[in-house]
């Protein structure tokens, strides 16, 4: 099974957010909803793969929920749940205009 399928299957069981992800989602200027995160998980694309992550194989996903704004989600599929490690609105300071390519890489 590929990583994207594993992510979707894990998310269908349960989605658990780290404290870091919750803090990022509640940032005063961004306010990212759980529905936006789910949209990225189920409809977004993987833009970076982290097979050696200390939290287990994870990846960075990009989506544009409701065609509103780009959202990045770092997640790791587990047997019984999907761990949401980080969620944020990518900035043009750190990302190219496609929000898939890091600046300076």
Explain this structure to me?
By secondary structure, the protein is α+β, with helices and mostly antiparallel strands. It has one domain (3-88): 2-Layer Sandwich (YaeB-like fold), CATH 3.30.2310. The chain has three helices and five strands, in the order H-E-H-H-E-E-E-E. The chain has a five-stranded mixed β-sheet. Strand 2 (45-50) and strand 3 form a beta hairpin. The longest helix has 11 residues, at 3-13. It is globular. It starts with a helix and ends in a 17-residue tail after the last strand.
Summarize the structure.
The chain has 105 residues and is an alpha+beta fold. It has helices spanning 3-13, 19-25, 34-43, and strands at residues 15-17, 45-50, 58-63, 71-77, 82-88.
Unreliable residue runs:
none
Computed Rg = 13 Å
Q: Give a short account of the largest sheet.
A: 5 strands, mixed
Task: Report strand %.
Answer: 25-35%
CATH architecture: 2-Layer Sandwich
- Specify the CATH class: Alpha Beta
Give the fraction of residues assigned to helices. 25-40%
Looking at the structure, the CATH topology is YaeB-like fold
- The total beta strand count reads 5
Choose one word for the global shape. globular
Order of helices and strands: HEHHEEEE
Helical stretch count?
3
């Amino acid at each position: 099974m590929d990583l994207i399928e594993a992510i979707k299957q894990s998310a269908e069981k349960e989605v658990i957010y780290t404290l870091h992800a919750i803090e990022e989602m509640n940032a005063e200027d961004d306010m990212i909803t759980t529905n936006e995160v789910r949209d990225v998980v189920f409809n977004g694309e993987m833009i970076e793969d982290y097979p050696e992550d200390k939290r287990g194989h994870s990846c960075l996903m990009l989506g544009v929920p409701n065609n509103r704004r780009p959202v990045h989600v770092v997640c790791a599929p587990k047997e019984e749940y999907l761990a949401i490690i980080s969620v944020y609105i990518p900035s043009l300071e750190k990302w190219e205009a496609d929000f898939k390519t890091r600046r300076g890489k």
